[in-house]
């Protein structure tokens, strides 16, 4: 009996070991398979190529506000596409006449958005590295250390310009940025923030209170908590600064009382543009106004809005005494100094009761619209994504959780039913798909402010990109028209052409009120830091005729859908192309 029991015990031990071994092997095999599949998905996303074929599109549109003459002259047989209100109804229609891209849960578009998000995140590190390389050359620029000063955010002295860089801020980078804008002093705080101005802060602090190490330069001090490490920009660069970034704004009719309109003035024989600009820059005014021997400094205001420019010939001979005596016209120049009346921003003090989206297709000007909204309202905007490059440009809402409701609105490129219905209302920003596709392609290969190279445009990536993203442009608008609860439609082209009226619409939609001077300040800073730089190709046409036919049909579809919801149709410049 004992022998039999011993054998049974031995068998059970072997069985336990065998079960343990099989369980471990099963788990390891499953883990390896999961890792392999995950790597495959990421690799496909990083390559940016799409295996999706272009979805069905309409070949002809009857009763559409925008008409493509090629469609009327050369009708070709093709799959029928239901548009307008029919396209916005719940998917229960005959699937033979219902293209997949009109359905919000279209799996292909959802995969495309996921790949875009993966590429968006993976692109951040190379862009930040590139920014670090660009900063290296400024290391030789050294200023004079003036000391540690108290920094009051409500009464900040160095408020002429503000820059952030959470990872790569250095003393040289801050000094160079302030020097390029003709400021005398550069101040650093919190190890990552840079402030510029022409006056030293009034209150000094103990040297040991400036104890924050620069994020991009070990061993260097970049201020502290409510403390500024202040440097004087080197004088040898002063001559170059006087002539830098002075922009001619035009010839304007002078206000009736110049001294009441402009807070600072100078009378100088043989007055030059450089003299007046330097004087106004020192006074920290963005406008330099010249009339004969007189120089005035100030801001755009209701009495001097810079909206109605006159013929430049009326200002010819302005430096002549007899012409100046007439006092009818004046020359206006933009100095390197920023208009600081609308640069102060903060988070909402109480959570917003209305959850508002700022929605657009990628490349449609969402970042620029955020810049305008933030400076007009004085409140930060949030983002469904985190973009470190934008945070470094001053968009502090990037770091805040997108559902915190501490921001005035939230940027999103999402267009699924669930994602749309989370918001109570939305500003839907629409841009010409030709421009949007090119802008997003530029961002993909050269960041927010660069241009893709000729090699990028001629690669196989570009046709695949257009084939996939063009349908996303259309479905994005159609989904928001279908599921959005309360919408304000803003066309990017209208916003550029009539900035203040359109910006007023957006501000009122956000239930905010702003002063006219603040709106004029936004207009004066309309571009911010978001104009692309680098070699832009002239007379460059990257779209083939096949691409144009595809995009034009999507344009006609979206146009009819907008009109079907009693919105203004797309601007006529969209097609024909």
From TrEMBL:
It comes from the Eukaryota. Keywords: Repeat. It holds the Pfam family WSC. InterPro entries: P-loop_NTPase, Sialate-O-sulfotransferase, Sulfotransferase_dom, WSC_carb-bd. One of its GO terms (molecular function) is sulfotransferase activity. SMART domains: WSC (SM00321). Belongs to the WSCD family. This is WSCD1 protein. The gene is Wscd1.
